[in-house]
Structures are given as C-alpha cells and as structure tokens.
Amino acid sequence: MYNRTDLFKHKAIYQQQLANQLVTAVIVLDEKLTIQYLNPSAEALLGKSYRRLFNLAFDDVFPNSTIGAIRLQQVIESGQEFNDSDVSIQLGDHYTFTAEVTASATEFNQQPHILLELKQIDQQKQISAEAFQQQQWESARDLIRGLAHEIKNPLGGLRGAAQLLTKELNSEQQEYTSMIIEQADRLRNLVDRLLGPNQLPKMEVQNIHIVLEKVTQLVSFDNEKNIQVIRDYDPSIPDIAFDADKVQQAILNIVNNAIQAIEPESEITLKTRVASNQTINGQRVKLSIMLSIIDRGPGIPEDIQDTLFYPMVSGRSNGTGLGLSISQTLIHQHHGKLSCKSRPGRTEFTILLPISDETKL
Length: 361
Ligand SMILES: Nc1ncnc2c1ncn2[C@@H]1O[C@H](COP(=O)(O)OP(=O)(O)OP(=O)(O)O)[C@@H](O)[C@H]1O
Ligand SMILES: [Mg+2]
Hints:
This protein has helices at 4-21, 40-46, 50-53, 58-61, 69-78, 122-168, 171-195, 208-221, 244-261, 323-333, and strands spanning 25-30, 35-38, 82-91, 95-108, 111-120, 204-206, 228-232, 240-242, 267-280, 283-295, 337-343, 346-354. The protein is an alpha+beta fold. A hairpin with a 2-residue loop joins strand 4 (95-108) and strand 5 (111-120). Helix 6 runs antiparallel to helix 7 and helix 9 (244-261) runs antiparallel to helix 10. It has three domains: 4-120, PAS domain (Beta-Lactamase, 2-Layer Sandwich), CATH 3.30.450.20; 125-195; 204-354, Heat Shock Protein 90 (2-Layer Sandwich). Adenosine-5'-triphosphate is lined by residues 253, 257-258, 261, 295, 297-301, 304, 308, 313-316, 319-325, 347.
C-alpha cells in the first residue's frame, strides 16, 4: 500500500513526463499572450523549438489564424473555455493546416494563463492521400520495372550476337556491329535505371553530415553555373544506420534537379534538423532526421506536381524522369520518406530518416 506522500510523489513523476508524451500539441500563454511553454508535439507542429518560440507573441507565431488575440483575451477575462474544431492556422507563407483548438483559462504560479490544446485534423486526410500516392507510385514503378525486365533479356542476346558476328566481318563491316553494340549499351543503361536500385542497402552507423559534405564537394567539382551550397546543419544530430552511397545518390538526384532549374550564381540550401513526431508511411515516428534541400528557383511545373515521383515524369525536354523515382526507392529502402513542397520562388524537398533506438548511437 502507498501512503499519501508516496502516492503524491508517484503521481508527480507521471505528471512531469506527461506533457512530453502527449500527441496533442499543448501551448501555454501568459496574460500578455506570449508563449511560456510548449510540449514536443507543439514544437513538431510548429516546426520550431521551444528556445525559438519562448516569449514570442501569439499573433507573431500564428499571424493569420482564425483564432485571434481578442478571442483569447476573452478566455482570460471570462474564465470560460472555448473549443473550435475548424481553426485554420498558417505557418510561414506556404503552409496552412486545420486544427481543433481548445483554449482554457488556467493558473500557473498564481498568475492567469491560457492553456491551448491543438489537434491537427487534416493530418488523417493527408495520411490517406499519401498512402494513395504511394500505391500509385508503386504500381507505376512496378509496371515500368516489368517492362524494363522484358527488354533486358533480348537486349543481352542482341548484343551477344553482334559481338559474335564481329569476328566474321572485315574491319569496315565491323563498324556496323560496333554501332549495334554501342546502341545496345546505351539502351542497357536506360533499362538499368528503369529497373531502379536492386541491391539491399548496406547499413552502417554513421553521421548524415558526411554524406552532405560529399554532395557539397561533388557539386563544387562540377560547377559550371557557379552555384553556392549553403550548409545549415544541426550538429547535434545523432549517428544512424544507413547506406551512405545510396543516400548520397538520393540527395544528388534532388540537388542536380535544383541545379538544372535555378539561375547561375544562385544558392541551394542543405538543412538538417531533428524532428519529433513525424508521420512516415502512415506510422508515427518519435524522432527522425529531417534533411531539406531548398532552392529559390522557378518551382516544379504545376502539371507534374501530383506525379512528380512517378518514373518517366519529367518537365525537361531532355530528362528521362527517373531521378526522383530512384531517390524515392532509395529513401524507402531506409524506411524513410521523401516529399516535396514547391511554388514559384521556393522548392523544398524533405527527406525524413527515422532515428530508432537501435540506430541511435
Ligand atoms: N528543384 C526543382 N525545381 C524545379 N523543377 C524541378 C526541381 N526538381 C525537379 N523538378 C522537375 O521535376 C522533374 C522530374 O525530375 P526527375 O529527376 O525525376 O527527372 P529528370 O530530371 O527530368 O530526369 P533524370 O533525373 O532522369 O535525368 C524535372 O524534369 C523537373 O521538371
Ligand atoms: Mg533529375
């Protein structure tokens, strides 16, 4: 049996940890409507850390939200809570989401405060849209793979026969067979890209920044457009297990697209952060590495945005449309997620790689 003091201590332990574990985003505002506290779910929802949001005014953090300072002021004055299941919240100038918000008057340190509880309600919709996209992508990829596989075998036969024939021909005639061999090799290259990565990743525990440094170096070696790579790293990111070659290839495909799209002398930003409570392939992942590749180019053409990751979707006249599909496969092999948000003037590709307890060092 617990006595009263023990029970109180026992309860306090749970209370202290509770806010950190909640899926609901919790924000505490003081009387002046500045942010005093937010739990990790709120940090994830707002995409900013407690340190950056502490003491900021509600109106500055939620500039165009449909709950304004006046409604919140009323909560403090009347002591009555309100619940609104359709609050539109805008973060930055390119991301809006719908949330269910409960605001209640409360006291901390004997001072009046407001407790805000936010639940993102379009997340569920987004998860099913993502699952649908994923299915579509997989069937398009499988179709192309099947086709590529069927082309590969006869192509091998064709090349082999041309090689045998070469031996029977004089040097002038051999020009024809070497032409056949050369073209067969070109096709073989294409077919291999269509088939996509076929080896399982070789996982090794290491730091993601090693790969980003390599990508930066590769860009600087072949830099006709004089593009500047800005590195915005979070050095505290833990090491995780991944295949460096594959992740590098996935990032390079994205970076190369950006280089092709932007003006000479422009910038590409490589940003890393630790993100909490992200949804990856329909599953909630507590901690993940969030890697963003950002450019300020013209944006993804509108007509290919929905099918961007499908194989053979290209907005360039000489593009094969395989780069992003390959990147998607490589990131999936790491149980991660690759997504993109784009509008003219800003394109951001985001790679999420889960940090699991086994992979964390
Ligand atoms: N950062 C970007 N800015 C503008 N458009 C982009 C960007 N990234 C990708 N795109 C568009 O997406 C298309 C698809 O890219 P993807 O890498 O899959 O194929 P590709 O570059 O056309 O061909 P491949 O990579 O196979 O040579 C590109 O053709 C381009 O139109
Ligand atoms: Mg490409």
